[in-house]
Amino acid sequence: MWHSTTPPMKPMTNDKIYYFLPFWDDKPCLYIRSFFQDHRRRLYNSNAIAAIALKLEEGLSEVSSLMEEEDGSAERRLKEVLEEMMSGCGQYLSIARASSAASTGGRTKLDKERMRLCQREIVSGVGYIDKTPSRQHFPVSLYVVLRSISAPVEKFPWNSSSEV
Question: Is 70 left (phi over 0), alpha (psi -120 to 50) or beta?
């Protein structure tokens, strides 16, 4: 049972929009006890996807700076960036599938749909990367490859702002 050390009082207002308690010079300490849902699983998924996205964006910016300098290693670095992205996506998918198969406790229908959406988008992104001209065996301009990779990055789930 909780007991308050301050006397009960009604809130005051000046404009009927903003209300406050008239403590004036007396500043009480508050102890709020509340129970929150555990969102670590959702945050882990969001952080894993964001880490993949950050590495991809950094790698693509590095490739574009190498292209501006007309460095010969730009094509090699682009292939490394794509391989890193594909391996990161593969690791995320294997972990996500293992965790979804292992336990269903505490997961809402929205959680399950969000996980399916993220997995579908990542699989489609990896499929798109596989089809890029740099992965093929014919020569193509690096500018074309960079443009073709940068465009679909905008639709991936790591760019959504409503995670939790």
Answer: left
What 130-138 contacts at long range (C-beta under 8 Å, 24+ apart), as own/partner pairs, is 130/86, 132/82, 134/75, 134/78, 134/79, 134/82, 135/82
How many folded domains does the chain comprise?
1
pLDDT (0 to 100) of residue 13: 94
CA angle 19, 22, 24 (to 5 degrees): 130
Query: Any idea how long the chain is?
Result: 164
With a CB cutoff of 8 Å and minimum separation 6, the contacts of 115 are 45, 96, 100
Structure tokens at 147: 């443009």
Give the CATH number, domain containing residue 65.
1.20.120
pTM of full prediction above 0.70: no
The residue to which tokens 């399916």 are assigned: 116
Residue in the structure block whose two tokens are 């959680």: 111
Query: Coil, helix or strand for 53?
Result: helix
Q: Are 86 and 79 spatial neighbours (Cβ–Cβ below 8 Å)?
A: no
Q: Is residue 14 over pLDDT 90?
A: yes
